């Protein structure tokens, strides 16, 4: 076709229709790209884990957060429902809430919502996230009212907190570091908000920067030291093991991510690309090593004892009836490699804290292929406190050289 007849074709009705079709195809393509970016960011930021009550509609809120000394607060309904959710909000209102912790009507959010970390995402990224969030099913759920102690019940006190600890902001890449490191920093410090659980708190409940990622107790669990320190952190892990743990929730010789970390994998990290997992590993490896006082005890190598569990303690006998159906004498899983607990930090931590909580509350992990591996909770299942501390002490001394203390285990039992 000559140039001339091409221009004429455009002026005819069919030409216009073709143009209209082409441009609508373009918008459709742009929209799906925005939605894909938004969904990926929503996964990387773990919004669903906190904004879904146990057994509840995704993103409809109502999950309880027990903040010691402050009281209980509940996550909000962030589905697009116009009345009970955030359907009526503008993108600007949403971005301000997520990055600055200020919802419409000057409602100052509590930092149980990790807006200081989310401020690392650019406003454009948060807008993409919102576009995807607007596509999830609406829910008319109204979360319970917060039960916070005075003065924490007054939202305006967050103005002061924000001045001390509040929103950071997105930052330019550090040109002295690799692109992979910069991507890792963005993911870990921003959407991943890993420090929210893994960094100790300052006196004003801000995140410690001098001891960043050196471990913290949160939601009744120990989020371990994940700095490269060799004894109390993860300096002894290989890059491959760390990547495997983050991508799948399990690394041979390090056990399985459980409880809150299992949720991080289930809702968030299992959705990330291998390249993004590698970037996170690169950044975590380069953190300042910080020693903490909860270095784990050495693991025991369980020499083959004919696959039998020693029966000379009450705890050992209870382990056989309650646990050995899924965990073998050497810690390997009977039905699934995800139940291979040998080498797990929860077994070797001297306070036995996470171990007894996992035994009490159970844990569930959904991994990359969508399969779910669950461990039942034993609290309230006809087991006395003494039964539970006996099993825990047995597990600690059978698999590791940890030194269980009845007092520490009882304290952990009451931690939630
Ligand atoms: C660690 C838990 C946690 C995570 C992760 C989390 N939130 Fe929240 N979010 C909360 C809690 C708790 C509240 C209620 C805070 C309050 O009442 O002050 C909240 C409040 C909000 C609000 C304010 C709603 C309102 O009605 O004022 C929005 C919007 C919101 N979250 C969006 C998100 C998005 C988007 C993500 C992911 C990028 C996310 N949240 C991730 C815990 C979380
Ligand atoms: C909601 C709190 C929470 C968040 C957010 C969180 N973690 Fe964890 N993490 C934990 C807990 C609790 C454990 C211990 C799990 C266990 O005992 O099985 C843990 C364990 C780990 C471990 C294993 C440490 C060891 O010595 O066994 C690594 C590695 C880790 N987390 C990395 C991360 C990274 C990277 C992020 C951010 C993407 C992150 N975590 C976000 C709570 C959290
Ligand atoms: C029905 C099978 C089943 C039974 C019974 C069971 N577990 Fe588990 N357990 C699992 C699975 C699957 C996992 C991995 C899933 C997860 O951690 O979220 C697991 C995880 C664990 C972990 C976490 C390991 C880590 O790396 O942090 C510990 C500790 C544990 N089990 C101990 C026990 C003890 C002690 C008992 C008995 C009181 C027991 N389990 C009973 C299936 C079971």
Automatic annotation (TrEMBL):
Q: Does the keyword Nucleotidyltransferase apply?
A: no
Q: Where does heme c 2 bind?
A: 194, 197-198
Residues reported to bind heme c 3: 323, 326-327
From the UniProt annotation, give the residues forming the signal peptide: 1-30
Q: What is its main location?
A: membrane
Which InterPro entries would you find in this protein's record?
Cyt_c-like_dom (IPR009056), Cyt_c-like_dom_sf (IPR036909), Cytochrome_c-type_DH (IPR051459), Membr-bd_ADH_cyt_c (IPR014353)
- The source's superkingdom equals Bacteria
Every copy of the Cytochrome c domain together lies at 33-137, 179-288, 310-399
User: What does this protein's record comment on cofactor binding?
Assistant: Binds 3 heme c groups covalently per subunit.
Q: Name one GO cellular component term.
A: plasma membrane
Residues that coordinate or bind heme c 1: 47, 50-51
Query: What does the UniProt keyword field contain?
Result: Cell membrane, Heme, Iron, Membrane, Metal-binding, Repeat, Signal
Entry-linked Gene3D superfamilies: Cytochrome c-like domain
Q: Which Pfam families match?
A: Cytochrom_C, Cytochrome_CBB3
Q: Keyword Iron, does the record have it? A: yes
- Which prosthetic group or cofactor does it need? heme c
| Compartment(s) of residence | Cell membrane
Q: Name one GO molecular function term.
A: iron ion binding
Where are the bilayer-spanning segments? Answer: none
Record's PANTHER family? Answer: ALCOHOL DEHYDROGENASE CYTOCHROME C SUBUNIT (PTHR35008:SF8), BLL4482 PROTEIN-RELATED (PTHR35008)
Q: What is this protein called?
A: C-type cytochrome
Q: Which organism encodes this protein? A: Acetobacter estunensis
